[in-house]
Design goal:
Strand content: 15-25%
Largest sheet: 7 strands, parallel
Distance between the termini: 20 Å
CATH topology: Rossmann fold
Number of helices: 9
Number of domains: 1
Radius of gyration: 18 Å
Strand order of the largest sheet: 3-2-1-4-5-6-9
Order of helices and strands: EHEHEHEHEHEEHEHEHH
CATH class: Alpha Beta
Shape: globular
Structural class: alpha/beta
Length: 273
Amino acid sequence: MKPNPTFWQGKCVLVTGASSGIGKALAEHLVKQGASVGLIARRQEALEQHAASLSAAGGTVAWACADVTVAEALATAVQDLEARLGTCDVMIANAGIYHKTDVSNFNTLIQNTVVATNLQGVINTVGAVLPGMILRQRGHIVAVASIAGMIGLPAAAAYSASKAAVVTLFQSLRVDLHPFGVKTTVAAPGFVDTPLITDEERATLKELLTAEQAAARICQAVERNRAVDWFPWPTWLVCRLLSLLPANLYRRFVANIPDMEEPPTPPLSEGKR
């Protein structure tokens, strides 16, 4: 897909999980396309450094610290950024985390944390901008989900479930928001080379996207007003075929897929697939 060279010019775009990985790459891409970009994440030092780098390159950038799981703090951050950059035209709910699901030592706190960030955090992000977009009868809300939301992957129950929920959440919102002039898009990438990828996975994974490639594809999906964009296509095709298998065959095939591994110190940003 070829990018639209004028689509982002003059638009105010807010990005959660903007301190590293896909979120950081999105901010860099959007600034180059002429957008004013608001960065939201939990790590103040990383946000300051990233914002300073983008500003030095001539971008219009502002930042605000917030945890997407805290609705009030996120709403305050959005209000602060809109006061500095203008009303939000596009909100990209990118923040997310991954933790393995260990069924032999099932930790409800860890699993609920994954759902809280990846699903409830997206809901909080929608709530922070939706009233204003409905009032203005325009706007675009984007969620970064994952191909893991297409099938239940080994040792990734909460992660896969949270990403699948985001896809169906936005499918429903797309129907309900159409009369109000508000658009929605879900981007569902496969493996992306971010801090959540381990060195072993980086060396062995096929179809591994760079964060910059993922960011460009996400932006193109928004430009084309795609409802759901699964990519890259070879990974999508494999997952699609697996999803069509009878339950017993599905279990046998998927059981052979290597577990998604956690880095020694998981960072606070979006990640794997």
